[in-house]
């Protein structure tokens, strides 16, 4: 008689159920480790808490519409910022770029009556891309740190905006009604601006995960020196990231004019930091190499929603800013802890 006995059965389930259970546990474990899902859960909790305090926050028609519409501009900026941050750079000039393109939009409608709306939109995007070229060339080819360059161009572009616009304010009655309707109309209950922002986010995500040049952005952010040794066109790819970021900031400026129907020299003040914060909170590593555009988008929605929800929850303005700052600090610390954990795991695998 053989001395080897089969292990006792732990139940009447078929043998395949163990494998299925393992796959379910693995999927749940991956979900729990996903930064995007974690941020989405926080977003849902914030919405639930604000709605419990005041049901008009979500359940009214205006509340649902504002929840979708308000983050749209920041979504575009966060998507562009993500492209730059993933290469170990940052663009602090997006707020000033947005202001210039918003004012350009208004001036084109005033100075060129009858100009087709698509032409104006393309002009704004092209201007944003051109300003992105300036940043990209100086960072990628001159070798100056992106933080220094874009901090400088942020002030240069803002100064150009102040010189150009001065105290002038473009108002809704100076722009076509069809253009302004882009900022107010909806399709199947979803604001058009939200649809545009989601299409842009989807396009950026598709580019990053299917195009070779998109995947190379991650490689450059992970290790720029190794990317050069491998033969990647690092300066060209970094320039591309800045151009795309500028183009999306230009589109954000155009849509800002449509959304608010008014453009002044103060447009976009401080929004560049919100764009960086949205990307970091959404799981984009500040030191490059990892993150998704969907994470940046969820981070943008969370930031805007928190700013709307905290006053409803009775939290003073000081603590509102403190909560946002704590989220950003927590995201950076978590990113560093996860990076250190991955490094230790790689060291252990090498030793084995």
TrEMBL record:
CDD domains: TM_PBP1_transp_AraH_like (cd06579). The keyword NADP does not apply. Its main location: membrane. It comes from the Bacteria. It is a multi-pass membrane protein. Pfam families: BPD_transp_2. One of its GO terms (cellular component) is plasma membrane. Residues 1-12 have a biased composition (Low complexity). It is found in: Cell membrane. The chain crosses the membrane at residues 37-55, 67-86, 92-110, 117-134, 140-158, 179-208, 238-258, 279-306, 318-338. Residues 1-20 are annotated as: Disordered. Keywords: Cell inner membrane, Cell membrane, Membrane, Transmembrane, Transmembrane helix, Transport. GO terms for molecular function: transmembrane transporter activity. Part of the ABC transporter complex LsrABCD involved in autoinducer 2 (AI-2) import. Probably responsible for the translocation of the substrate across the membrane. The complex is composed of two ATP-binding proteins (LsrA), two transmembrane proteins (LsrC and LsrD) and a solute-binding protein (LsrB). This is Autoinducer 2 import system permease protein LsrC.
């Amino acid at each position: 008689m053989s001395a080897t006995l089969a292990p006792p059965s732990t139940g009447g389930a078929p043998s395949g159920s163990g494998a299925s259970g393992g796959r379910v546990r693995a999927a749940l474990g991956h979900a729990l480790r996903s930064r995007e899902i974690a941020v989405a859960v926080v977003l849902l909790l914030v919405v639930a808490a604000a709605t419990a305090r005041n049901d008009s926050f979500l359940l009214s028609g205006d509340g649902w519409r504002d929840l979708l519409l308000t983050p749209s501009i920041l979504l575009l900026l966060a998507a562009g910022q993500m492209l730059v941050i993933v290469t170990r750079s940052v663009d602090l000039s997006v707020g000033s770029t947005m202001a210039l393109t918003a004012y350009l939009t208004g001036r084109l409608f005033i100075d060129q009556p009858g100009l087709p709306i698509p032409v104006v939109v393309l002009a704004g995007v092209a201007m944003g891309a051109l300003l992105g070229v300036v940043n990209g060339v100086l960072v990628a080819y001159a070798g100056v740190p992106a933080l220094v360059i874009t901090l400088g161009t942020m002030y240069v572009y803002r100064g150009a905006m102040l010189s150009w616009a001065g105290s002038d304010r473009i108002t809704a009655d100076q722009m076509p009604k069809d253009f302004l309707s882009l900022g107010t109309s909806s399709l199947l209950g979803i604001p058009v601006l939200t649809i545009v922002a989601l299409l842009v986010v989807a396009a950026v995500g598709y580019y990053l995960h299917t195009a070779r040049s998109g995947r190379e952005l991650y490689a450059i952010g992970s290790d720029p020196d190794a990317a050069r040794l491998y033969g990647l066109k690092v300066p060209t790819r970094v320039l591309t990231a800045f151009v795309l970021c500028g183009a999306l900031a230009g589109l954000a400026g155009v849509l800002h004019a449509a959304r608010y129907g008014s453009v002044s020299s103060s447009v976009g003040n401080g929004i560049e930091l919100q764009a960086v914060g949205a990307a970091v909170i959404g799981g984009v590593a500040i030191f490059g190499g990892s993150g998704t555009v969907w994470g940046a988008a969820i981070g943008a929605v969370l930031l805007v929603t928190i700013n709307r929800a905290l006053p409803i929850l009775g939290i003073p303005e000081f603590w509102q800013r403190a909560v946002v700052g704590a989220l950003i600090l927590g995201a950076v610390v978590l990113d560093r802890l996860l990076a250190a954990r991955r490094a230790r795991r790689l060291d252990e695998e090498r030793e084995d």
